[in-house]
Amino acid sequence: MFEATKIIHQNSDWITLILVFIFFILSLLKVIFKDRLYHESTLFFSKKYLSIYFNKEKNLTLNLFQIALFFVKLLVLSLLLYFANVYFKIHPNSLNFSTYMLLFLGVGLYFSIHFLIGLLLAFLFNFKNEFTKVIYFKVSYFNNLILWILPFLIFSIYTNKIQEFSFRITFLLVVLLLILRYVLILVYNKKFIYNNLFYFILYLCALEIAPLIIVLKLTV
Predict the structure, then answer these.
(1) Distance CA 1, CA 3 (A)
(2) Which alpha helices (H) appear in the chain, and where do they start and end?
(3) Residue 211 CB: number of other CB atoms within 10 A?
(4) pLDDT, position 54
(5) Which residues of 127-151 are buried (b: 16+ CB within 10 A; e: fewer)?
(6) How far apart are CA 70 and CA 91, in angstroms?
(7) Could you read off the pLDDT of 1-48 as tens digits, one per residue?
(8) What's the rounded Cα separation, in Å, for the pair 170 and 144?
(9) Secondary structure letter of residue 205 according to DSSP
(10) Rg (CA), the chain
């Protein structure tokens, strides 16, 4: 615990700069898109806004709002993985900004491969519309998850006395919200999944497992 606290204290400058950059992006989104950011943060409670924005954007998963939140997602997830490395001592000798950037690139590569494989399968098996809807739901719920855990992550970083306990709570929250995210996606798309069970199994193998294996092979 003492070593972890000491490491975080030594790296607080660049961590603070990353958090400031995250809030800068979120502030711009709040100004440009007005209530959209708030609605994005409440998706776990209401599907209404998800359907509204999906129809309004005409099935466009890639737009300015989603791209900006994509970078926020990469920054936050990379911080989470960095502190997981700190506390679980996965690579205890690699705790610096270079490690964080490597994690950032790895997470970005994972999501990029994930999206490209999914798009390829959608074209090959002719279910592009269904894929677009599912991926829109997944991206939106993941953005919601990131907005929820960000305050917990900040609190964990700058709380000295209960830092380890705070990080454990944050990691547990991430796991619970990921489970909730998948449950909601399955519930809202159960008809499509039931009618296309083979493609759904193919989707799980190709999009959830294959990108992770590829990234691990490239980075480890």
Answers:
(1) 5
(2) 2-10, 12-33, 36-40, 48-56, 64-88, 97-124, 128-157, 163-188, 190-195, 197-203, 210-219
(3) 20
(4) 74
(5) beebbbbbbbbbbbbbbbbbbebbe
(6) 26
(7) 445 555 555 556 788 899 999 999 999 999 988 788 888 888 888 777
(8) 15
(9) I
(10) 18
